[in-house]
Amino acid sequence: MNLMHRYSCVKAVLAGHDHKGGYSIDSHGVRHRVLEAALECPPGTDAFGSVYVYDDRISLVGTDRMANTDMHFDHQ
Questions:
Q1: Would you say which domain of life the source belongs to (predicted)?
Q2: What tens digit of pLDDT does each residue of 13-42 get?
Q3: Domain segments of the chain: what residues?
């Protein structure tokens, strides 16, 4: 975490996996999105998504088990 917090340009961290997924904002304002585990998918379903990067946010558009997430941030 110290490495990420050294740089003000770090706005978000995507990591995987946690079986239920997760999202939080730490004390430095960095958004953390832990992706859902594909292992937990029922047969015939998926857990993947597409990431879209904009000036003011990062959007994860998920399929099936993976939740959609919009991570908004302020310009600095």
A1: Eukaryota
A2: 999 878 788 999 999 999 999 998 888 888
A3: 2-72
Task: Give me the residue label for tokens 């088990």.
Answer: 65
C-alpha separations of 75 from 16, 27, 44, 69 in Å: 26, 17, 41, 19
pLDDT confidence of residue 47 = 82
Q: What is the dihedral of CA 56, 46, 32, 16, to 10 degrees?
A: -140
Q: Terminus-to-terminus CA distance in the chain, angstroms? A: 20
Structure tokens at 67: 């939740």
d(CA 74, CA 56): 6
